[in-house]
Recover the amino acids of this structure.
């Protein structure tokens, strides 16, 4: 059975709108695809260990979809596991972006208390795929109206990938529900 691994963003959850839309689409139209969307750990190294353990345990073909920080991790999964990946308004340099969040945090979904530190920024920098080798296996879905991330960073980083760039929109990626079938086809599931 093929698997779609969905990775949510920073301070998000498997109950995010896009994750739920993807889960619903697969249940209705592609019940032959297993959907995995874990609640990722709040800190980078722990989240990556969790993702890698899940990817290692998947038997058979799989593809990965990630939004925001999940897109950062999805890029790493595609690179290391040789699968196809779709990244939605991805965080390209989260080790810079998330410096604004250093200090005490409470996860809005899990209510976990944790402290985001400079060491976590170093973990993110170490996890970045600095030179992806197979951009043809990646598809960037990007909206210019993203109020959280600078869309130009993603356009530069993913310039050799398949790119769908839209004017307007927002960080949540308005209209995501219209891309679900195309995402499944691109992932070759």
């Amino acid at each position: 059975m093929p698997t779609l691994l969905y990775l949510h963003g920073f301070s998000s959850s498997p109950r995010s709108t896009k994750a739920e839309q993807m889960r619903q689409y697969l249940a209705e139209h592609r019940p032959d695809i297993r959907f995995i969307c874990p609640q990722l750990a709040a800190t980078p190294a722990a989240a990556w260990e969790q993702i890698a353990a899940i990817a290692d345990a998947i038997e058979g073909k799989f593809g990965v979809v990630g939004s925001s920080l999940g897109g950062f991790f999805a890029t790493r999964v595609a690179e290391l596991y040789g699968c196809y990946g779709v990244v939605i308004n991805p965080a390209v340099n989260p080790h810079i972006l998330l410096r604004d969040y250093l200090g005490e945090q409470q996860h809005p979904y899990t209510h976990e208390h944790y402290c985001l530190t400079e060491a976590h920024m170093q973990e993110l920098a170490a996890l970045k795929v600095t030179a992806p080798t197979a951009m043809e296996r990646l598809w960037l879905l990007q909206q210019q109206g993203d109020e959280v991330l600078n869309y130009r960073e993603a356009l530069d980083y993913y310039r050799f990938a398949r790119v769908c760039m839209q004017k307007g929109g927002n960080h949540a990626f308005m209209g995501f529900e219209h891309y679900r079938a195309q995402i499944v086809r691109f992932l070759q599931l």
